[in-house]
Amino acid sequence: MELIRAAEPDNHSMQAVSPSRALEILMTPESQIQSLLSLSDCARAARGVSDEISFCCIINAKSGNCTEDCAFCVQSFVNSVPHRSYPMLDEHLILSARKKAGGLGVRHFSIVTSGGSPAEKELDDICRIISRGEDGKSLWCASLGILSLRQLMLLKDAGLRRYHHNLETERTYFPRICTTHAWHDRVNTVRMAKLAGLEICSGGIIGLGESLRQRVGMAFQLRDLEVDSIALNFLIPLEGTGICSRQEHISPADMLKAVIMFGIVCPDSELRLCAGRKMLGEYEKEIFRAGVSGIMTGELLTTSGSRFQDDLELLEAAGRVRAI
Question: What angle do CA 108, 109, 110 make, to 5 degrees?
Fold first, then answer.
């Protein structure tokens, strides 16, 4: 099959895949998806990738009242979707949620706050919470917006293991998604977090109206940043958001092809599926063959997620095991 051979990497490195070959993966007919999955299987086997799948979860520690204008986010001041708004949660609630997650075997537990960046008092409170939860079974992660190197080093010193900060979309498409800050501000935060000695989780949203080439471009931008984990989301369109009117329907097959493409372009990063994966339908159990090594379980920021037990059953159906 010419298309599959064109997409197949050489024997030296999966990173030899070119943007044009990555684009061909996205353009593969649905009838050839099993061939793409076989390609991913071979790549995983060649790298000795484990069948263990790690779980992560988040707590929406501060919600709403965001002054950024991200077109997809219900928490933005420019969107009119009803949602809960509240200040920083009590320390006890956050630590209790992390303890519960650790008891379920969730590897990464993330504190997420709305807004471009936290106030200094909020950052101090978060550092204190992290430092008081050093003995938990889940590793601390945080997604707090655009931070300076000083702020990131404070979090690192408090015990933070991983910082999450999405690129959201490809550089050239970003101005259509957000105008209150620049794509380079996000890249700079990722670089500063690496400089602070933190692991990096970064990714974006598929289905914002970006072209296939831009979808490929985001994968290569993440590869070039050498992030530890890629968080891949699929847009859940909500009436009242600016993106809803220009959102294109993405079929489950196109979603799966995007997962395969990211896995092949970025073989040295964890590939973690987060929001929207239930829209994959019957293809959901194929995500692990496609290269996924982690999933987000539990509630999402402003929409419902998946039940932990359901995710365990998904792993069993796919012949995978949970990483402890």
Answer: 115
